[in-house]
Amino acid sequence: MIKVVFLGPPGAGKGTQAVRIAQKYGVPHIATGDILRAAVKEGTRLGKLAQSYMDRGELVPDDVIIGIIRERLSQNDVRESGFILDGFPRTLPQAEALDNLLKELGMELDRVIYLNVEDEEIIKRLLARGRADDREDVIRNRLEVYRKQTAPLIAYYSEKGLLSEINGVGNIDEITAKIEEAIGLNG
Ligand code: AMP
Questions:
Q1: Could you tell me if the CB of 146 is within 6 A of ligand 1?
Q2: pLDDT at 183 over 80
Q3: How far is ligand 1, taken at its centre, from the CA of residue 34, in Å?
Q4: Which ligand 1 atom sits closest to the C-alpha of 87?
Q5: What integer is the mean pLDDT of 106-129?
Q6: Residue 186: pLDDT above 70?
Q7: What does the alpha-carbon distance between residue 168 and residue 116 come to, in Å, rounded to a whole number?
Q8: What is the CA(33)–ligand 1 centre distance, in A?
Q9: What is the mean pLDDT of residues 31-36?
């Protein structure tokens, strides 16, 4: 059972690393960005609502995202193996909602992995990735939104003694090893 949150700016490598840890330990990888992109592609009501926010690099409203996570965390695979959360929480109200949800489920977070990468490197990486919301103006807005709304979660989890900061620049395997060590999977 592993219950971990990945935190960090867009382009820090959260997705890459979260998938690796999830696959290696057989834990569900829950990425709100992936869930929203799938909904946009399928043209569901959620997708139609989410698209305008995503196109601008703004956050989808908290109640919508919290509803998605509430539903997902109550499924059997999560009860059995835990979860790797990637891209959630992104605001203080989301973090508080997660605390309440976990309490309801009788679960506790093991660790919050904060992947840290500086702005210039982020912009370089995202421009190279070329996703629909990876245009320079949208990237700058996503960084601004990250700084204002998500970065406060670093202190939130640090005060709870849950935060492990890991440098997100360098060799991918070495970063994975550091994450495993922080989660306590190596000892
Ligand atoms: P990501 O794939 O994590 O970079 O997310 C892509 C976009 O989906 C973000 O820029 C937001 O518009 C939206 N999104 C993903 N996760 C969240 C979240 N937890 N809260 C609000 N919006 C989100």
A1: no
A2: yes
A3: 8
A4: 3
A5: 95
A6: no
A7: 5
A8: 5
A9: 98
